[in-house]
Amino acid sequence: MNYRKLLHFPQNCASFLANHHFRWISLVAGLPLFGMVTAYAITADEAETAAVKVRQQQVTEALALPTFSAVNSDTRYWREEPIRRGDTVAALLNRLGINDGDANGFLSGNPVSRDLLKLKTGQTVSVKTDDDGKLYALQFLNDDDNGEKMLVAVERNAKGQWQASADPVETQMVPTVRSVTVKSSASGALAQAGVPAEVRAQLNDIFADKLDLAQLKAGDKMRLVFETYLYQGSPITTGNVLAAEIDSQGKHYAAFYFTQGDDSGTYYDEEGRPFKQGFARQPVTNARVSSPFGLRYHPILHALRLHSGIDFAAVVGTPIVAPADGVVASAQRENGYGNVVTLRHNAKMTTLYAHMSRFAQGLKAGQPVKAGEVIGYVGTTGRSTGPHLHFEVRVNGQAVDPATSALPTRTLTPSEHLAFRQQSVKLAQDLKLLRAIPTTVAQLD
Ligand SMILES: [Zn+2]
Fold first, then answer.
1. Residue 130: which of 150, 151, 103 has the closest Cα?
2. How far is the CA of 306 from the centre of ligand 1 (A)?
């Protein structure tokens, strides 16, 4: 039989086959449903009976299949996908096999969602989808322009329209405890113990006046307590190091974080004496701290706010001075920071001054500056709600609390000393407990 010839006469296929060769019916009809050719060992006499049987079977299968696929397309589930370097939302969805023209149109065309959907490498995006590659919702955590932790959500509302939102997230703080014995390097041992990069940067900074963490030797020990913030039970970010101690080459160092009220805290030793010197000056004199560094709660929303520097409220035109000797790394205009100057003080530390009304006359990159020298003037350029200096300190590129890393540490008043005692006693007990644990890595949380 010429099968090709059959294809030229499709309207006659069934009758032609039925009349001439039953074997072909079972073959051709069976193909779309079963996706494979079943070999029927039949003779011409048995063919008619066989074909009838196959037809009956087809009806049963044909009814069952649509029901099955209808159940499938209703099933929606969440998938999680880490953001890779250079990822866009479109690329990430594509990787998950999601192809939803309607959703893509909203994600790329809506200015609100476009602004919110700036992805950061290493974050995880949760995507609600189904087996047909349709998108129902997408959400992830992000920092807004003020450093506030937001839950960005893009979803279809009840009317089937797309909408984007960003809301502060509710978090819970838990102290995390680690005990580390240096084998080859302190940073390696800390990383192995799951101590995040931000906390390692803080440790470098806390002990900067006493020792260089990179110089710690095998056998040296470090114990620390730091803040971890949880969102729905998963850690999303870290806060301050609350206590840290180092035993190195027969010497013991211990630092305790102390804060009262809304002020930025700083570190003191067991006796309540300032743990480090800091810069001799402030970048603006007699200015009030209007917003401290780090994570702060919204009292009602319990929302987490991450501020990468300290804000000093001051009138426009107040001179800003270099708090320590350094070299101008950059003096330029940026979107968020406005007129911003960066100073490099040593191989590890840089400081940043944002929202200036103007730079000091002739200030340019590469120029050395002395402590106390004017580098610019307070303003409200860039994304700023009012005249203030946004002051940042970075150690190895990582933002650290200027109050603990650079600004002069205040001596405690007698009443503060009493409060410090109460706070540090508990932390000292945690550290003491860690000392008794012989393992390299310990986690008590
Ligand atoms: Zn600020």
1. 103
2. 10
CA–CA dist 417, 423 (Å, integer): 10
Q: How far is the CA of 384 from the centre of ligand 1 (A)?
A: 8
The architecture that CATH gives domain 172-277+411-445 is: Roll (3.10)
Q: Taking ligand 1, which is a single-atom ion, which protein residues have CB atoms under 5 Å away?
A: 309, 311, 390
Residue 12: DSSP 8-state: G
For the sheet containing 374-377, what is the strand order?
319-321, 374-377, 358-359
pLDDT in tens, 66-102: 444 444 456 888 888 888 888 888 888 888 888 888 8
From the CA of 310, how far away is ligand 1's center (Å)? 6
The model scores a pTM over 0.70: no
Architecture category of domain 76-168 in CATH: Roll (3.10)
The one-character DSSP state at 413 is P
64 CA to centre of ligand 1 in angstroms:
63
Q: Between the CA of residue 327 and those of 209, 236, 334, what are the distances in Å?
A: 21, 35, 20
Distance, CA 286 to ligand 1 centroid (Å)?
A: 17
Q: Note the CATH architecture for domain 278-408.
A: Distorted Sandwich (2.70)
Q: What is the pLDDT of residues 341-357, one digit of tens each?
A: 999 998 888 999 999 99
